[in-house]
Amino acid sequence: MKTNFDVLIIGAGIAGLSQAIALTEKVVSLSIAIVSKSALKETNTRYAQGGIAAVMSTQSDSYLAHIEDTLNASQHKADKEVVSFVVENAHKGIHQLENWGVRFDQVQNDYHLGLEGGHSQARILHVKDQTGAAVHDELIKQLEHHNTISVLEYCEVVELLLNANGEAAGAWIYNYAEKATTKINSKTIVLATGGMGQLFQYTTNSPIATGDGIVLASTLGAKIANLHSIQFHPTAFRELGKSKLFLISEAVRGAGAHIINEKGERFLFKYDLRGELATRDVISSAIYQEIKTSGNDGVYLDCRHISKELLAHEFPYIIENCKEGGYDLTIQPIPITPAAHYSCGGIQVNMQGESSIPNLYAIGECANTGLHGNNRLASNSLLEAIVFTRNVANHIQNNVANLVYHPTETAKQTELSNEEPDFFKAETDVLKALLTAYFISKSENDKADLIEMVTYFKEQLSNIYSNELSELHFRWKLELVEMLLQNDSLNVEVSPVDEHKLQW
Ligand SMILES: Cc1cc2nc3c(=O)[nH]c(=O)nc-3n(C[C@H](O)[C@H](O)[C@H](O)COP(=O)(O)OP(=O)(O)OC[C@H]3O[C@@H](n4cnc5c(N)ncnc54)[C@H](O)[C@@H]3O)c2cc1C
Predict the structure, then answer these.
(1) N or C: the chain end with fewer CB closer than 10 Å?
(2) Per-residue pLDDT tens digits for 468-500
(3) Residues 231 and 204 sit within 8 Å (Cβ to Cβ)
(4) What is the pLDDT of residues 38-65, one digit of tens each?
(5) Contact 189, 409 (CB under 8 A)
(6) What digits encode the pLDDT tens for the residues 195-253?
(7) How far is the CA of 49 from the centre of ligand 1 (A)?
(8) What is the rounded distance in angstroms from the CA atom of residue 325 to the CA atom of residue 337?
(9) CATH 3.20.20.70 correct for 237-339
(10) What is the pLDDT of residues 369-388, one digit of tens each?
(11) Does ligand 1 have an atom closer than 6 angstroms to the CB of 192?
(12) Domain 4-229+344-402 CATH (choose: 1.10.10.10, 3.40.50.2300, 3.40.50.150, 3.50.50.60)
């Protein structure tokens, strides 16, 4: 296996693949490795349904409206400069994807634009209800045109390495197929490792979404920011015995679906006058409060009043998945629950995607660019990845002459083993349950229970030194939970709307 590269890109979702393609188009001579710890197609990117938000015409929409919607959703915690930059460059990102072969849905020779919660205009470009998979497929096809890009599948980065100047300069990689640990030397590194929904009991995220890049960067001393801002998606399909839940896209609410309680009441208006079109944090919180007040978890998504033809045309993938779970969305309400969905914070980066460690960039869901603040506006994340790709590529291109190999400092990594992948399953389940309980309740008691358990687990681990990957993964989880707790001014809490205000 080749072990020296100009650029090492860790992650093969929209962020990692776009980065590799954009870079190689700019500097043909660069040797690039893309590392994916699972199958190439196992990414959160592939699960994205709704689409990509963009103002494609200032005749029917405006940058200002998209900027305001993003700032409002973020609870005014987003960075205005970053928001303006991303919104005003969104159309360029879309055209970039089109140049790489993506064909967004059209109607009468124009884009077919979806409406999603928190957006004041229909501005979501999509490919039916499988936008992420359509984009990912085209990016994978593009790789075939570039023989300077090597894809290392089933290879997990287990440690990042610095050189004597304190610059990122390589990584240890565990190769699942060869059961071997290998060192990769690289002149520059881009982290594109995605989110961390798998830390929670219920999530819409892929099994790969375990926050690795954030722990790896933090271990080097990189600045991590806004980690507590985890977005819960209100409409995950609640299926008994499952923890990775199927997402029912925001676009279904945009098409008119209602959220009802056990009595069939549309209760959201008690909490926010926008009802089903309120932002995700508001709806998730309202659902939790409704469950708490009513004492049962019967909350449903109701599409029975929407035309069957429209549903079949717009949401074939969602209908099929609900059917597999025993529900027909066109004729009966679907049980739903909020589930951990998106990590708004992450590795702090500037407008060029640079982290606080020289030669270490971060892009996509693992990065904290400042676009999302406390809460991401729907369909702004694929957009963020594609817009930032250009900046990172330009920055690396401008610095390409300065890129040289410097030997890494770190001693030999212990040879790792994957003999006992489930060794910490019981402990992981306890951790997930306690973390979820705390994020939902925000109660000091739940926080104390969580801290007590983390301390206990750390004490236990202080006596264990195996070379099992499962132990490393469990240590990473504990570190992430501690980071989440360090800055835990949790998401917005909504209170019922004043009855009097509702009357007018
Ligand atoms: C169900 C669902 C629906 C969504 N819908 C939308 C939507 O409609 N619009 C929108 O804008 N956003 C949506 N999102 C969010 C969006 O899909 C993600 O934020 C985005 O795809 C993240 O892309 P990424 O490239 O950063 O990470 P990912 O696509 O998750 O890719 C991460 C990559 O990192 C690799 N990796 C991780 N750790 C390691 C390691 N240690 N070593 C090696 N490789 C590693 C993984 O193998 C993977 O290749 C949705 C998310 C989900 C889960």
Answers:
(1) C
(2) 999 999 999 999 999 999 865 443 334 443 333
(3) no
(4) 999 999 999 998 899 999 999 999 999 9
(5) no
(6) 999 999 999 999 999 999 999 999 999 999 999 999 999 999 999 888 899 999 888 99
(7) 12
(8) 15
(9) no
(10) 999 999 999 999 999 999 99
(11) yes
(12) 3.50.50.60
Known catalytic residue at 253: no
What are the residue ranges of helices labelled H in 242-342? 250-254, 280-294, 308-314, 316-324
Tell me the C-alpha distance between 297 and 335, whole Å: 9
Which pair of structure tokens corresponds to residue 5?
């590269």
- Whether the CB-CB separation of 317 and 248 falls below 8 Å is answered with no
Residue 231: strand, helix, or coil? strand
What's at 186, amino acid-wise? Answer: S
b/e burial code for range 207-240 (CB count within 10 A of at least 16 → b): ebbbbbbbbbbbebebebbbbbbbbbbbbbbbbe
* Ligand 1: centre distance to CA 42 (Å): 9
- Which residues on adjacent β-strands are paired with residue 361? 190, 354
Q: Which amino acid is at 175?
A: N
Complete DSSP assignment for 170-211: EEEEEETTTTEEEEEEEEEEEE-----GGGSSSBSS-TT-S-
**Does any ligand 1 atom lie closer than 6 A to the CB of residue 381?**
yes
- On whether the CB atoms of residues 34 and 17 are closer than 8 A, the answer is yes
3-state secondary structure of 223: coil
Strands 346-348 and 367-368: parallel
330 lines ligand 1 (CB under 6 A): no
Q: Using alpha carbons, list the distances in angstroms from residue 408 to 9, 160, 416, 455.
A: 17, 10, 20, 33
- Give me ligand 1 centre to Cα 196, in Å: 9
Question: What does the domain layout of the chain look like in residue ranges?
Answer: 4-229+344-402, 237-339, 425-486
Nearest residue to 195 (alpha-carbon basis) of 186, 203, 187, 184: 203
Structure tokens given for 69: 């919607």
Query: Cα–Cα distance between 54 and 459 in angstroms, integer?
Result: 49
Tokens 């500037």 locate to 350
Tokens 């195996």 belong to which residue?
Answer: 466
Tally of CA atoms within 13 A in the half-sphere of 376 that contains its CB: 28
Largest CA distance in the chain: 70
Q: How many residues are there in the chain?
A: 504
pLDDT at 46: 97
Q: List for the chain the helix, strand, coil content (%; round to 5).
A: 40, 20, 40
**Which DSSP helix (H) or strand (E) runs through 18?**
helix 14-26
The catalytic residue among 46, 280, 376, 390 is: 280
Of all protein residues, whose CA lies closest to atom 17 belonging to ligand 1?
Answer: 45
Q: Please state, in angstroms and rounded to a whole number, the distance separating the CA atoms of residues 169 and 358.
A: 9
